[in-house]
C-alpha cells in the first residue's frame, strides 16, 4: 500500500482555460499540480507560465462543471474537491452587464459576477445613486413574457447603441472600491427638491465627462412617454396566472450571477422588489423617486395592477402635464428659494413619504384616552340571488373592533354583532363623482373570509372610518400616531378625484397638444375616443395643476400605494391537502390565498402572527406556523420556492430598518433570513 504522504505528493495534470484577449497566446494551459496546492498558488503558477504582463487582480477560477467560483484562495485543491477532470476557467470577476431600469432605459455597466446578487445590487445602486438598495433586485424576464413579445413583433431588435447609457468607466464598474462618502448624510449628491434636477456640484459624482449632466437627467428625470404602438407590443398580463409570470424570474440574492447562468452582456431588469419605500427624501433621492414613479407608471399602463376609471384619469393627469412637460422644462427652471423648499418639505410631511407616521410637533395626548368613532352607517350584506340587504345601523369603532346597534339609544346594551378587524383585508369601493363611499371588509373566519360592506355618507366620514379600518387590520388603534396622517392621506386622494370641469379646456380639447393614448392603459383607449380622453384628462388635471414636479411624482406614488392590489406579488401554488391550484399574494405584511378562477381572497395570514417558516428543500415545500396553532404548507408551481422564501425573509428584514441606525446594511442578517439551508 502507498502511504497518504507519498500519495499526496504525486503530481497530476490539470488543464486550465484562460479568458484573455491576447492574440497568438494559448488559452488552454496544462499545469502539473498536487492536491495540497492552494488555489492562490495555482493562480501564481498559471500567471508565471502565461508570461503576459497585465493586471490579473480581478481574475479568479470558475469551475464550469460545478457552477461555482473558487474564491477561497487559501483552500487546497483537495479541500475544494478539484481533480484532473475539473474544467477551471481563469476569468475576470467583473463583467459587462446590461440593465433595463424601471424607466425602460438600458444602462451598460461592469458588475461583479462573483459576488452574491445582494452585494452586486448594492454596488449597482451606488453607481446609479439610488439609496436603500435592499429594496431592489435583479429580474430575468420569464420565457412566457418574452414569447408573447416575439409573437407580436418578430422584427424587434435590441435597443440601438445610442439608447444605451454606458457607465463602464465609473469606479464601481471598474471593480474599484466606491468612495464610502457617497452615502454619508453630508456627502450624498444633492438634488433640487422641487424640480428633481441635480445640483451642479452633484454632477461630478457621476463622471468628469461632458455627458455627466445628461446621465443625471436620464436617471433622475422623466422623459416623453412611449407611443401607443410601442405600448401595444409590450407584455400585458390578463389574468392572475399571467401576473404570476412577472415574478417568476427574481434572481437568488444569496448566489452570484454566474452561478445562476447569467453571461457577460446579458440583459436583466433592475426593479424594486420590495414595496416598502423607506425614508424617501427629494434632496437625496431624485433618482430613486423617479425610478419608483416609473415602475408605478408602467405597472398601471400595462395593467399589472388594476385601478378604476376615475383613478386611471388621475394617473393620466399627473403624467400628462406635470411629469412629462415639467421634466422637459426642468433644466431651465431657476433655483428655488428657501421658502419653496420648506413648502415641499411640508407637503412631503403631509404625504407621509417618510413612512414614520405621526406629527412630531403634536403634544402627547393622555394615554388613558381611548379614541373611538360612533356614527350612523349603512351595512350592506350580499345575499343569494344577487340581492343585497342595505340597512342603517349605529356603528361604534373602538380599539380594533366594530360593533353595530339598531340605533344610538341601544348602544349601551349588547351589539347586534361585533367584528374584529385584526388581520382583515380592507378594500376601498369609491366613486367620488357618483358620491359613493364604500368600505369592503374581508374578515378572516374559520372557513374563509366573511364579507362586510360599509357605506359612508360623505368624504370626511369615509376618511375617518377607512383610516381606522386600515390601522385595525394591522393590529393598531386610532390612538396610534399614524391615524391622523392616514386620514389626511385619504382625504388628499379623494380631493384629487373630486375635480370640476374646466369649460375652456373641455370645449377645446383639440387645441391641446396631447396624445391621451400614451397616458392610459389600452383598455381605456378602446373604451373612449381620443377627444373624449383628452377632455377627461384635462378635467382631472384641474386638481393637480399647481404641483411641482417632485410633488407630482410623489402624489403619483401615493395614489399607486392607495390601490387595493398595491405591493402584491403573485405566485401559483398548491396548498397541502388541496386538489386545485391557488394564487398566493405576497405583500409587505401578509400572505393572501386567492381563488385562481374568481380572484377573490380566501384567507389572509399576517407576518405579525407568524412564529416560524421553513422550506423542505427535498420536496420544495414551504411550511409556515402562525399563532393559535395555525399552520400552512404549499409548493410553488410558477417559480422556485426559494423566491417566496426570500420574499418573506426580505420583508421581515426590511421591517427592522430604522433611521436612527447607520445606513450600512446588516448583510449577514439578510442572508440569515432569506438564504435558507438548501
From TrEMBL:
Coiled coil (UniProt feature): none
N-terminal signal peptide: none
Pfam families listed in its UniProt record: FERM_M, Kindlin_2_N
Gene3D superfamilies: Phosphatidylinositol 3-kinase Catalytic Subunit, Chain A, domain 1, Pleckstrin-homology domain (PH domain)/Phosphotyrosine-binding domain (PTB)
Gene Ontology biological process terms, A to Z: cell-matrix adhesion; integrin-mediated signaling pathway
GO MF entries: integrin binding
Superkingdom of the organism of origin: Eukaryota
Family the UniProt entry places it in: Belongs to the kindlin family.
Name of this chain's protein: FERM1 protein
Organism: Vidua chalybeata (Village indigobird)
GN (gene name): Fermt1
Amino acid at each position: 500500500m502507498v502511504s497518504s504522504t507519498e500519495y499526496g505528493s504525486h503530481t497530476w495534470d490539470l488543464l486550465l482555460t484562460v479568458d484573455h484577449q491576447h492574440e497568438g497566446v494559448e488559452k488552454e494551459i496544462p499545469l502539473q499540480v498536487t492536491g495540497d496546492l492552494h488555489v492562490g498558488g495555482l493562480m501564481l503558477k498559471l500567471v508565471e507560465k502565461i508570461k503576459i504582463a497585465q493586471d490579473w487582480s480581478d481574475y479568479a477560477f470558475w469551475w464550469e462543471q460545478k457552477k461555482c467560483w473558487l474564491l477561497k484562495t487559501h483552500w487546497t485543491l483537495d479541500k475544494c474537491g478539484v481533480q484532473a477532470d475539473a474544467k477551471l476557467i481563469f476569468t475576470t470577476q467583473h463583467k459587462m452587464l446590461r440593465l433595463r431600469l424601471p424607466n425602460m432605459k438600458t444602462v451598460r455597466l461592469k458588475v461583479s459576477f462573483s459576488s452574491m446578487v445582494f452585494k452586486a445590487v448594492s454596488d449597482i445602486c451606488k453607481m446609479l445613486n439610488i439609496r436603500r438598495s435592499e429594496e431592489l433586485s435583479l429580474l430575468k424576464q420569464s420565457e412566457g413574457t418574452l414569447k408573447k413579445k416575439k409573437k407580436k413583433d418578430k422584427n424587434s431588435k435590441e435597443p440601438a447603441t445610442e439608447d444605451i447609457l454606458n457607465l463602464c468607466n465609473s469606479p464601481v464598474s471598474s471593480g474599484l472600491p466606491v468612495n464610502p462618502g457617497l452615502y454619508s448624510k453630508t456627502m450624498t449628491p444633492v438634488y433640487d427638491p422641487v424640480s428633481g434636477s441635480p445640483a451642479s456640484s452633484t454632477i461630478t459624482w457621476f463622471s468628469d465627462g461632458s455627458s455627466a449632466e445628461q446621465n443625471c437627467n436620464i436617471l433622475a428625470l422623466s422623459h416623453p412617454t412611449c407611443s401607443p404602438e410601442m405600448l401595444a407590443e409590450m407584455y400585458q398580463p390578463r389574468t392572475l396566472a399571467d401576473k404570476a409570470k412577472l415574478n417568476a424570474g427574481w434572481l437568488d440574492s444569496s448566489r452570484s450571477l454566474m452561478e445562476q447562468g447569467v453571461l457577460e452582456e446579458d440583459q436583466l431588469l433592475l426593479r424594486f422588489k420590495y414595496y416598502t419605500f423607506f425614508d424617501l427624501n427629494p434632496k437625496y433621492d431624485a433618482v430613486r423617486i423617479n425610478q419608483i414613479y416609473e415602475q408605478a407608471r408602467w405597472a398601471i399602463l400595462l395593467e399589472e395592477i388594476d385601478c378604476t376609471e376615475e383613478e386611471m384619469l388621475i394617473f393620466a393627469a399627473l403624467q400628462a402635464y406635470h411629469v412629462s412637460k415639467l421634466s422637459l422644462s426642468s433644466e431651465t427652471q431657476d433655483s428655488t428659494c428657501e421658502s419653496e423648499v420648506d413648502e415641499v418639505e411640508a407637503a412631503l410631511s403631509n404625504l407621509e413619504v417618510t413612512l414614520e407616521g405621526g406629527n412630531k410637533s403634536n403634544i402627547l395626548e393622555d394615554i388613558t384616552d381611548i379614541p373611538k368613532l360612533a356614527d350612523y352607517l349603512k351595512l350592506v350584506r350580499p345575499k343569494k340571488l344577487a340581492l343585497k340587504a342595505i340597512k342603517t345601523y349605529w356603528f361604534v369603532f373602538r380599539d380594533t373592533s366594530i360593533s353595530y346597534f339598531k340605533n344610538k339609544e341601544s348602544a349601551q346594551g349588547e351589539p347586534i354583532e361585533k367584528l374584529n378587524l385584526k388581520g382583515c383585508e380592507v378594500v376601498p369601493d369609491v366613486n367620488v363623482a357618483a358620491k359613493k363611499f364604500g368600505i369592503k371588509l374581508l374578515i378572516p373566519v374559520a372557513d374563509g373570509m366573511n364579507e362586510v360592506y360599509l357605506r359612508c355618507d360623505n368624504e370626511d366620514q369615509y376618511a375617518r372610518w377607512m383610516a381606522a379600518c386600515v390601522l385595525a387590520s394591522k393590529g393598531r388603534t386610532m390612538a396610534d400616531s399614524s391615524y391622523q396622517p392616514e386620514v389626511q392621506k385619504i382625504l388628499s386622494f379623494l380631493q384629487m378625484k373630486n375635480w370640476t370641469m374646466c369649460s375652456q379646456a373641455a370645449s377645446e380639447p383639440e387645441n391641446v397638444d396631447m396624445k391621451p393614448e400614451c397616458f392610459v392603459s389600452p383598455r381605456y383607449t378602446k373604451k373612449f375616443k381620443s377627444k373624449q380622453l383628452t377632455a377627461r384628462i384635462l378635467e382631472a388635471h384641474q386638481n393637480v395643476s399647481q404641483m411641482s414636479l417632485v410633488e407630482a411624482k410623489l402624489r403619483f406614488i401615493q395614489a399607486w400605494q392607495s390601490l387595493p392590489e398595491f405591493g402584491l406579488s403573485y405566485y401559483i401554488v398548491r396548498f397541502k391537502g388541496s386538489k386545485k391550484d391557488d394564487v398566493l399574494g405576497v405583500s409587505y405584511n401578509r400572505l393572501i390565498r386567492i381563488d385562481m378562477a374568481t380572484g377573490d381572497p380566501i384567507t389572509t395570514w399576517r407576518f405579525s402572527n407568524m412564529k416560524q417558516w421553513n422550506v423542505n428543500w427535498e420536496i420544495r415545500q414551504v411550511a409556515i406556523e402562525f399563532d393559535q396553532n395555525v399552520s400552512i404548507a404549499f409548493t410553488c408551481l410558477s417559480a422556485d420556492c426559494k423566491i417566496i422564501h426570500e420574499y418573506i425573509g426580505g420583508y421581515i428584514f426590511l421591517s427592522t430598518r430604522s433611521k436612527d441606525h447607520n445606513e450600512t446594511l446588516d448583510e449577514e442578517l439578510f442572508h440569515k433570513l432569506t438564504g435558507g439551508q438548501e
